[in-house]
Amino acid sequence: MRYIKLFLVSFALLFLVITCLGLLFPSTVVVSRAVDITASKDSIYLFIKDINGWKKWIDGVSESNLTIESPLVAKLGNTLVTISPSKTTDSVINAEWQSRNGEKQESRLELYQQKGQFTAVVHWEFVQHIGWLPWERFSSMMNDKIMGTMMEKNLNNLKVAVENH
Fold first, then answer.
1. Contact (Cβ atoms closer than 8 angstroms) between residue 37 and residue 163
2. Are 46 and 60 in contact (CB under 8 A)?
3. Among 95, 116, 122, 130, which is least packed by CB within 10 angstroms?
4. In this structure, what DSSP letter does residue 11 have?
5. Is the pTM of this model over 0.85?
6. Cα 98 to Cα 20: distance, rounded to the nearest angstrom
7. Tens-place pLDDT, residues 16-44
8. Cα 56 from chain centroid?
């Protein structure tokens, strides 16, 4: 009985220490990437304004695991992607990515182009709000490595698709 109490108290203290350490990590994680594209803002916008355009440059979207419910809503594998028309303008596309278990991430694609310039900047970011549980906080440390690499590859696909269009 003594060993069981020792184990339970030790486990509770260890969980408390790990939770306190996890709370030192930020509750919101932002992963962002950008690319310069030699094209007009309007020609880039055709590729990013709806999910039909995403099929041309986001890996995995053109595969058979995509179900387009409307130009602004699609199911990609186990993730529901919804473009928010109320938060979307001619230079900003906001979308919500929700996994089957309810985890949500916000995505934002922004286009910047100065007048007289023929090069535009596409900035893409994902924002994830993290809960208080220690494994959620510690796992968020890998977001930049995992998502950042994917975002860079897809932005380069967008650059190639737009410049060859």
1. yes
2. no
3. 116
4. H
5. no
6. 28
7. 888 888 778 888 889 999 999 988 888 88
8. 18
Amino acid at 16: L
Residue (of 70, 96, 68, 92) closest to 83 by Cα position:
96
Low-confidence ranges of the chain (pLDDT < 50): none
Show Cβ contacts of residue 27 under 8 Å, excluding neighbours closer than 6 positions. Answer: 129, 130, 132
| Strand ranges (E), the chain | 28-38, 66-70, 73-76, 79-83, 92-99, 104-112, 119-129
What integer pLDDT is reported at residue 50 of this predicted model?
81
Would you state the torsion angle of the CA atoms of residues 61, 72, 100, 145, taken in this order, to the nearest 10 degrees? 50
Domains of the chain: 27-163 (3.30.530.20)
Q: How many residues does the chain have?
A: 165
